[in-house]
Specification:
52% helix; alpha/beta; binds SN-glycerol-3-phosphate; 8-stranded parallel β-barrel; 8 strands
């Protein structure tokens, strides 16, 4: 499973990229607004840090304007994936941009039929928002199962990019289903390593080692 980071916070992206766990990044207008920074300045920095796809979202809502914005974003860096909303104008734009070789991420997906439409429009990624479905009393992970099954049935190349992820369990469950990508808020990505028995075990190893009074770097081992 690929991990993307779901943030426009460049310091967080840089820090996490150093772990080797970051295969791409996703942004949206809300995440950019949260930084209080210039959109293209932020985008430049993210594209310089992350080798994989960096999703940047259009803000136009009508096909012609969406296409123009999408082309501008795609020309900005080689690794841009143009993010388009799940509307008929978005799907028309997805078709046009995809046919000209631009990677498109169709966002704000909340149903399996919407995911089917995006795949038929040639999207490189579909972004089902599982956390928002859970918040509304539905089962977000059931949607991921449905989309993975449908895409398998018809051999669609569109990758399932699990979005609106809230917990480490979301990541595990999406990986069990075989989703292609999870886009993770930095806090969720960091939480994946946590286990109390790891902490307890390490503390015991270090305490026992300290009792020996030895030091690996200061050891007289001839090196
Ligand atoms: O990038 C879009 C998505 O992941 C949004 O998540 O937490 O705002 O529902 P959230």
């Amino acid at each position: 499973m690929k991990f993307f980071v779901d943030t426009a916070d460049v310091d967080e992206i840089r820090d996490l990229a150093a772990t080797g766990m970051v295969d791409g990044a996703t942004t949206n207008p809300s995440l950019v607004a949260k930084t209080g920074r210039d959109f293209f300045e932020v985008l430049r920095e993210i594209c310089d840090i992350v080798d994989g796809p960096v999703s940047a979202e259009v803000t136009a809502t009508e096909h012609e304007a969406m296409t123009a914005e999408g082309r501008k974003l795609a020309a900005f860096a080689d690794n841009i994936a143009v993010k388009l909303p799940m509307t008929w104008d978005g799907l028309k734009t997805c078709r046009v941009l995809s046919q000209s070789g631009i990677q498109v991420n169709v966002t704000l997906c909340f149903s399996a039929n919407q995911a089917l439409l995006a795949a038929k429009a040639g999207a490189a990624f579909i972004s089902p928002f599982i956390g928002r479905l859970d918040d509304a009393g539905h089962d977000g992970m059931e949607l991921i199962s449905d989309i993975v099954a449908i895409y398998d049935n018809y051999d669609f190349d569109t990758e399932v990019l699990v979005a609106s992820v809230r917990t480490a369990n979301h990541v595990k469950d999406a990986a069990k289903i075989g989703a292609d990508v999870c886009t993770l808020p930095p806090g969720v990505l960091r939480s994946l390593i946590g286990h109390p028995l790891t902490d307890k075990g390490l503390a015991a190893f270090l305490a026992d080692w300290e009792k020996t009074g030895q030091s690996i770097l200061k050891a007289e081992d001839g090196t």
